[in-house]
Each structure stands twice: as structure tokens, then as C-alpha cells.
Write a structure and sequence with these properties.
The chain is an alpha+beta fold and 252 residues long. The protein is built from 8 helices and 11 strands. It folds into 2 domains: 110 residues, 2-Layer Sandwich (Phosphorylase Kinase, domain 1), CATH 3.30.200; 121 residues, Transferase(Phosphotransferase), domain 1.
């Protein structure tokens, strides 16, 4: 077992060394799919623990010898994001378990944010009237990230948490294991919104805010955002249909 701990949370080391067993026995399940996320209470603190599934064999080799694990990347990218002044839950630790030298389960531990909302509330196509300031704040946030050379490759409505106090919006970005740090121009920047879901009014507000912050043309940004958004939706639907056909074939 490999444990890498944020020095600010040194006192948690004895608990985290036993995390795999703790994860199986305790905590509230937040979601469970390919990976599993639980909140676990420890003395004086609540942890969010994400357990990444055991990779397929070829990826077990890759993650064991050639690439950083998803948990490792999530931890170090979170540290880097916070150092650059952007919000993400405090990274606490990551763990990797190995069998015969190959990666098994890996775990990313971060602070638990007690009360938050998700940008998913905009994904049902509901009216954005009266909530434009939240979307505008998101556009400014992403524009500033792009100006800083930060590209979150899984920028979806489920990975953007926020709280609001009046007109003041605070954001936290999660699922950081897929990121790039590079120069980001208009095309690449506007394409980065393709995983977001919302109606055209949502994207109009977003495009205006993002373009204004970066000095781009609003209509060009909107056209690019919508092009990649609809392409992403079509790809998702086609993939879902293929999976459904495959399930029916296996059941027949």
C-alpha cells in the first residue's frame, strides 16, 4: 500500500493507513458506478473518498510502471489548482494498493463540502431567468482558468459545485484526474464547454460572459460552444444506443 499525504493533515496518517477496510465498512455512499464515492466521518472532519475501480489488465501495467494513477493525478492536480488560486475541495491524500506489483484499487481523499449545489440544476433545459449571474460567474471562472493555461477535460455539470451568498458565487471543481496545462486559444477554450448541458439561453449567457472576460467575439464563441455541445450530445446518444443493443443481444 502506498500512501501520499498532504502535510497539513499529518494527524490523519494512522486512519488513512487503514482506509481500504474503513471504506468497505463505513461511510455514506454518494454515488456508485464504475468508481465509488463515499463520505466518511473521522474525528473532527468529514472526508470524501473516491475509490477508483481496478483497471483492466493492460492499464494495470501502464499505471503501475509508466503512468500516474487517476488517484495520484487527482491529488497533485488539486494541489496545483489551489496553488494557482482556483477552488477545489482540499486534497488530503491518495492511496494505491498493489497485488504482485500491479495496481489494484486506488483512492483519492479530499475534504467534504457540507452544503453545495451542482451546475446540473441547469441541465434539464429549465428557464435561466433570474439565475443568469450564476452562469456569468461560471463563464468568468473558466475564462480565468484558460488564461492561466488550465484545461479541465471533464468540465461537466456534475463536476462543478457552487455556493452562493447573495450575488457572490464560490465554485469548486472536482474530478480533476483529466487535466492539461497548456496555451488555450478561442477554439480550444470554447470547445472545453462541450460536456456542459443546458438550453441555448444557458449557453448564450455563458458565451457572453466567457467572451467578454477573454476579449473574444461573443457570437463566434456561442457558435463554437453550441457546435461542440450538440456533437457531444449526439456522440453520447449513439454510445448509449450501442450499449443498449449490446445488452439486448447478450440477453437474447
Amino acid at each position: 500500500m502506498k500512501l501520499v499525504l498532504n502535510p497539513a493533515f499529518k494527524e490523519l496518517e494512522p486512519i488513512l493507513k487503514n482506509l481500504p477496510g474503513l471504506f468497505e465498512q463505513q461511510g455514506e455512499i454518494i454515488y456508485k458506478s464504475r468508481n465509488e464515492l463515499r463520505s466518511i466521518a473521522v474525528p473532527g472532519l468529514t472526508l470524501n473518498v473516491k475509490r477508483y475501480r481496478i483497471p483492466i489488465f493492460i492499464n494495470r501495467i501502464a499505471y503501475s510502471f509508466f503512468r500516474s494513477s487517476k488517484a495520484s493525478r487527482a491529488f497533485f492536480y488539486a494541489l496545483k489548482l489551489k496553488k494557482m488560486g482556483f477552488g477545489t475541495p482540499e486534497p488530503i491524500a491518495y492511496l494505491e494498493s498493489k497485488t504482485f506489483g500491479l495496481l489494484g484499487y486506488s483512492y483519492f481523499v479530499s475534504e467534504h463540502i457540507a452544503t453545495y449545489r451542482l451546475m446540473r440544476e441547469f441541465s434539464d433545459g429549465s428557464d435561466v431567468t433570474g439565475r443568469e449571474y450564476i452562469i456569468e460567474a461560471l463563464g468568468v471562472l473558466v475564462a480565468r482558468m484558460h488564461e492561466a493555461g488550465i484545461l479541465h477535460l471533464d468540465l461537466s455539470v456534475g463536476n462543478i459545485m457552487f455556493q452562493e451568498k447573495g450575488q457572490d458565487i464560490r465554485f469548486w471543481l472536482v474530478d480533476l484526474n483529466r487535466m492539461r496545462f497548456c496555451k488555450i486559444g478561442q477554439e480550444k477554450g470554447c470547445r472545453n464547454f462541450e460536456r456542459l448541458r443546458g438550453n441555448d439561453d444557458f449557453f448564450k449567457v455563458l458565451a457572453h460572459s466567457y467572451a467578454k472576460e477573454r476579449g473574444f467575439d461573443t457570437s463566434e464563441c456561442l457558435a463554437t460552444m453550441l457546435k461542440y455541445k450538440y456533437r457531444s450530445v449526439q456522440t453520447f446518444r449513439a454510445r448509449a444506443e450501442r450499449k443498449q443493443k449490446h445488452r439486448k443481444f447478450k440477453a437474447s
